[in-house]
Amino acid sequence: MDIRQLDLNLLRALDVLLAERHVTRASARLNLTQPATSAALARLRVAFGDPLLVRGAGGLLPTPRAVELAPRVRSLMQEIEALGARTRRFDPTAARQRFVLATTDYIHTLLTPWLGSLMQQAPGIDMALLALDSDAVTGRMERGEVDLAVSHVTRTPVGLRSRRALTDQFVVIGRRDHPRLRRGLTPPAFCTLEHVLVNPRGGSFTGATDEALAGRELARRVRLSVQSFPQVVDVVAASDLIAVFPERLARRYAQRVKIVPVPVPVPGFTMLAAWHERVHNAPEHRWLRDAVVQALSVA
């Protein structure tokens, strides 16, 4: 036998032909035409140097060589099918795996309940949370240093695969007994208060809110610019400063801050989960993407 004449499709055809002993029925199972199945049988006969199946009254009859091959080919196909099944499944409760997730502290905070549950339910999984650096994330993914990134749609690097992770809107937060928040805010009243702003890269004193105010010929004063969302909560809870803040995150701190609507329309935002093509089909990475997006959808 010349093994170079065989491939997986031919072995599968042999397995089905030996089981069915009928070209028409074998063709249906193989999703092939009858001529294609007959051609496969002809190639198998050449490869094995044996007729394998010959015509009989009720269909095809196996030769002694075919009878010898049948259980061995079936066993081989079962091993191949089992191998494929193993590569398609990932059980987080039994796996030993380490993942690296790069994102903002906004996403880190929203994922906290899921991470707590994961630590209990998947004892073999380790998770590293990194601060997102959008400019470097593609290279780190190529080197296998980052598995998944979650970032603002405008900051997601081109060339990565991505899917929507969440959308969010903005609200105003301040300390719970803030006298100016008892009846909500008008745009002018909003502008008379002092603000704290979050800028993940640091140093900026303007954002989407300022653009919305400029369209109404209004302006506010940002007294404090920070890089961390939890830092904002600490500041507004202990002062008269207010902040325009993501609504999903604000609800997490509802016992510490008062939440009121933003008095001017400020566009919401979308966050994307992004990953490298090299891990697109890996079952453990598919699980990670699905789990993170699902956790954020209910956060």
Question: Can you walk through the features of this model?
Answer:
- The protein has 299 residues and is of the alpha/beta class.
- It has helices at 8-20, 23-30, 34-48, 64-88, 105-110, 112-121, 137-142, 187-192, 208-214, 229-237, 247-252, 283-297, and strands at 53-56, 59-62, 97-103, 125-131, 148-152, 161-168, 170-175, 194-198, 221-226, 243-246, 257-261, 269-275.
- The chain has a 5-stranded mixed β-sheet.
- The longest helix is centred in the N-terminal third of the chain and has 25 residues, at 64-88.
Can you give me a brief rundown of this structure?
The chain has helices spanning 8-20, 23-30, 34-48, 64-88, 105-110, 112-121, 137-142, 187-192, 208-214, 229-237, 247-252, 283-297; strands spanning 53-56, 59-62, 97-103, 125-131, 148-152, 161-168, 170-175, 194-198, 221-226, 243-246, 257-261, 269-275.
